[in-house]
Specification:
297 residues; Rossmann fold; Alpha-Beta Plaits; 2 domains; four-stranded antiparallel β-sheet; 33% helix
Length: 297
């Protein structure tokens, strides 16, 4: 696969505050790429450098293999929807899209975009009467006006109810597959984008902590977590303490953290103590647990 976005050693500061620190990552053509990180770690600043809204202090950005020159042609390759969707409230949905089309000097079929985001019947209605979900969908239509190869969505599910989030994700998949768009999006909640993205980069304090697929990030932990449940957890806890094992209670079980798989040894010890075991298994690492590990202090 070809890389359509390549960032190498990107840095950006505001005065003494260094927001982006040596950011290096690449996005492949046709994928949905997720930027994960808590609020305030530099996700929006990173996006603004990619779309050319602000200039980075150091490093290089390549769009489709060419250095980002901040030209009109390069910027036209990238669509963008900010976390806070803003439109002219007293204008209709169609009038808002016409404004952005004029701004982009692009003559296009707005009905096609309105139909894609299921707003064709609301084309003549003023945006001030739209719900958050409808405004988000109108924002998606706006992001497509330039017919960009790459579309960036900053915290796209913010403010949406569960049904709105599902509809948004279904629409993103449709744009990715049917319109053949490379999509980059950000989120601070792994559960909202876990099933949507092909790969992820995890940011913390302006640094890329890890990058890869859900499976790659989830398996990056070298330690083991064992879930143990017995008929007498109190007695079991004393045995674990004697063996100097790190554990805590979790959902009626004992969660044990070790550097290696000790199930066989632990099983033999408990059986010798006449303790009946109902569960002894490795707890699989999830994307969320890997994310929390990478972003926690």
């Amino acid at each position: 696969m070809n890389n359509v976005v390549e960032l190498e050693e990107i840095e950006k500061s505001y005065g003494d505050l260094k927001v982006l620190k040596d950011i290096t990552l690449s996005v492949e053509e046709g994928e949905i790429f997720g930027i994960l990180g808590p609020n305030g770690v530099g996700k929006t600043t990173l996006f603004q450098t990619v779309i050319g809204l602000i200039r980075h202090d150091a490093g290089t950005i390549k769009i489709q293999g060419k250095l980002h020159d901040h030209s009109k042609e390069t910027k036209a390759k990238i669509g963008y929807l900010s976390a806070d969707v803003n439109f002219y409230e007293n204008r209709t949905a169609e009038e808002n899209l016409e404004f952005f089309a004029d701004l982009a000097e692009k003559k296009t079929d707005l009905d096609e975009f309105l139909e894609l985001v299921d707003l064709k019947d609301e084309a003549d209605k003023k945006v001030k009467g739209f719900s958050t979900g409808m405004k988000k969908r109108l924002g998606i239509a706006q992001s497509l006006i330039k017919d960009p190869e790459i579309i960036i969505y900053d915290e796209p599910t913010t403010g949406l109810d569960p049904q709105g989030k599902k509809e948004f994700k279904d629409l993103i998949r449709k744009i990715n597959r049917e319109k053949d768009k490379t999509i980059i999006l950000s989120s601070h909640a792994t559960t909202e984008v876990e099933s949507l993205c092909d790969r992820f980069a995890v940011l913390k304090d302006g640094v890329v902590m890890a990058c890869g697929t859900k499976e790659e990030l989830s398996s990056s932990n070298s330690s083991y977590k064992l879930l143990l449940k017995t008929e007498n957890n109190d007695k079991t806890e004393k045995i674990l303490e004697e063996k100097n094992l790190d554990f805590k209670r979790k959902d009626g079980c004992l969660l044990i953290k070790t550097e290696r798989d000790i199930r066989n040894n632990l099983f033999e010890t408990l059986v010798k103590k006449n303790i009946t075991i109902s569960k002894l298994e490795i707890e699989e690492e999830t994307l969320e647990s890997a994310y929390l590990k990478l972003t926690s202090d």
